[in-house]
Amino acid sequence: MRTQSRRAPRAFLAVAATGTLIASLAACSGAGGSGSTGGDAINVLMVNNPQMVELQKLTADNFTEDTGIKVNFTVLPENDVRDKISQDFANQAGQYDVATLSNYEIPIYAKNGWLHSLDSYVEKDKAFDQDDILTPMTQALTAEDGNLYGEPFYGESSFLMYRKDVFEKAGLTMPGKPTWQQVADLSAKVDAAESGMKGICLRGLPGWGEVMAPLTTVVNTFGGTWFDKDWQARLDSKEFKEATRFYVDLVREHGEAGAAQAGYAECLNNMTQGKTAMWYDATAGAGSLEASGSPVKGKIGYVPAPVEKTDSSGWLYTWAWGIQKASKNAENAWKFISWASGKDYEKLVGEKIGWANVPAGKRASTYDVPQYRKEAAAFADVTRDAIANAKPEDPGVQPRPAPGIQFVGIPEFTDLGTKVSQEISSAIAGRQSVDSALRKAQELAEAVGKKYEGS
Length: 455
Known about the structure:
Layout: H1 4-7, H2 20-23, E1 41-47, H3 50-67, E2 70-76, H4 78-90, E3 98-102, H5 105-111, H6 119-124, H7 135-140, E4 151-156, E5 158-163, H8 164-169, H9 180-190, H10 212-221, H11 238-254, H12 264-272, E6 278-282, H13 285-289, E7 300-304, E8 317-323, H14 330-340, H15 343-352, H16 370-375, H17 380-389, H18 413-428, H19 434-450
Parallel strand pairs: 1-2, 1-3
Antiparallel strand pairs: 3-8, 4-8, 5-6, 5-7
């Protein structure tokens, strides 16, 4: 199980109840839900990633048809959905029964009493087969009390995607385990390899889960960290500066147009439309790239996340389902989760949409399905290995005071990470230098670190 309670202050998760986790989010209204539900209906609030949108389309004719349970969806972009979930769950408003939460939020929300434990549901629902869920995912969704509070819809790490045909035409070879310097060199060589094509796409959009996710993995492998083991902020360290300059310079010199406003969705679109030769991001993106009808299907190669000083650098992440404690429809909410994260749903997606689109990275059995092995051959094993090799407790070259690879597992990180991301995005846009951005970021981090010193 997670060693979070042993390595980080035991009290840190409770801070979020009325404090920093929602302080910066209160002004964001997002999109309206459908109000409270009763009877055989539930409200689900989820991120607008492609596989979630597919789920929405399949629900009425399958889940509702089979169970009689109507599902009212509210679907929002990542930053907006995080804001709205935080408000509703922190206030226990009960407007939404189920929401997409990550392995960052779930331990925090569980500590604050905002979520239903799922253990009793799992125990009764033998067909769900909890043992089939990949161990890193179960561990990541288990709180310090030892109870399970989330089920993954899909799991992911991060890796480098590249156009095999473009590299071959240019006479270039992608290393099996590239370094970031090799990636930078290759980016320069494939920039403008085809009309309108840039060398690489990297997130620049503000948001702790946007630009800060890939950038923090670069920081880790360059030898940096947000905080040392004594909670001293290290954003002004040589290693953090070197990694950030590298990232900013790379995306400014060889990255996508409008990089400061480009996130996961924009980079996925650029890669799909042939506007970029490489993309470092979530392994989940591969399913869309290899989907039936994708213009780049069969043209993409996949290699592990680039490294410098560490053996691996991929993140560990899952969009998972959590049930709000205030929900009056918990039984129906579990039935939806059991369906959406179940083996039969994966089969449904495979048959209706295509096996490359299956929300994978969560079940061991997925990788034994012949149809999936065939359709996802280009990325299946690389994805599974990346998840297995992720080290949320030890992602860098020095001890950490809290778990997390692309985030720091404390409630304050939503606010801190978002504010720092705004400074980094400003540097990517050319409005300030990296040194200036990190000077401000260091001050923000120092204020957070002081709360934990001596703990």
